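Issue: ligand-bound run for adenosine-5'-triphosphate - logging full I/O for the record.

Environment: standard queue, default settings, no custom constraints.

Inputs:
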Amino acid sequence: MRLISGIQPSGNITLGNYLGAVKNFVKLQNSDKLTDFLVFIADLHAITVPQDKTELRKNIKSLVALYLACGLDPEKVKIFIQSEVPAHTMLGWVLQCNGYIGELERMTQYKDKKERQVAGVSVGLLTYPSLMAADILLYDANLVPVGVDQKQHLELTRDLAIRFNSRYQDTFVVPEPYIPEAGAKIMSLIDPTKKMSKSDPNPKAYISLLDDINVVKKKIKSAVTDSDGFVKYDVENKPGISNLLTIMSCVTNTSIKELEEKYKDSNYATFKEDVANAVALELTPIQAKYNEIINSKMIDEVLDAGRDYANYLANKKIAKIYNKIGLGRKR
Ligand code: ATP
Ligand code: LTN
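Outputs:
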């Protein structure tokens, strides 16, 4: 079984990216059903909205170091940068020509991000899911571990694969999403009805994995909750407390039920203090490892090996696809 996933270097990854995606990559890398696991830095996706050149470079490197610091083992997972494998863009174009504007315009992420653009909406923001589909289909991946916000893009990927397979005969594996039961949608700390997002303009909304530990604790303690005063999981009426329960449950591997029982007589201050300490405990070793890795040679070594392997698989596949469509001369 082949797995693939990517994260955009659009900022430092958040606790949401970690619990919804990276923590699961680390679990899945040990599965005995695995033949290949590819994890990449989706830098071409990041430029769908304006990025500062220096920041982008810094974020790419930092994301590799964070993947490793969170426990991805380069022996088991090939880590590479999307823009270093040109076949992604080559297939992205082909899939744009097999997708419909209407289906792209329906994507929730497009509709949300479009509203936030002050300097104009790029064409790439709309066509981005075709490139995401290319990222996956290029490798005949079976399973794609992602947070719940990517489910719609995965459905589109499946539709594109099925459509292409029926037009040009079987070419692509139709992939399945892998969405964790808990932690697939961590919410903003200042507006718990909104997803926690690394590109949120307000840093109080998210916890970055690289935030100073005291800042992490402060952000959790000042997370928006409600005035009921009892710790109970109820997403509809108590989204802030429910979000903190989810976070606590994921970092301590304890069920929400058990946590509700434990904190049934506690006030919010005590509960938040414990959540803050639990998150700090999870992030402290990651930060220590990150600091060891960020200036080491390991980053380039891992990326060189990942790039070569990904190009090897991707170039074989893109040649077959171009042949099926009738592009260029027969190879
Ligand atoms: P941006 O703010 O630039 O859109 P993002 O923080 O939403 O970025 P992505 O790079 O789009 O993050 O997502 C990387 C992975 O993390 C995806 O698998 C996505 O589903 C997952 N993810 C993103 N946000 C959350 C969240 N709040 N909770 C759980 N998983 C998340
Ligand atoms: N669109 C994703 C990042 C991403 C991705 C992928 C995830 C780009 N290509 C392929 C899984 C598989 C996002 O999280 N915004």
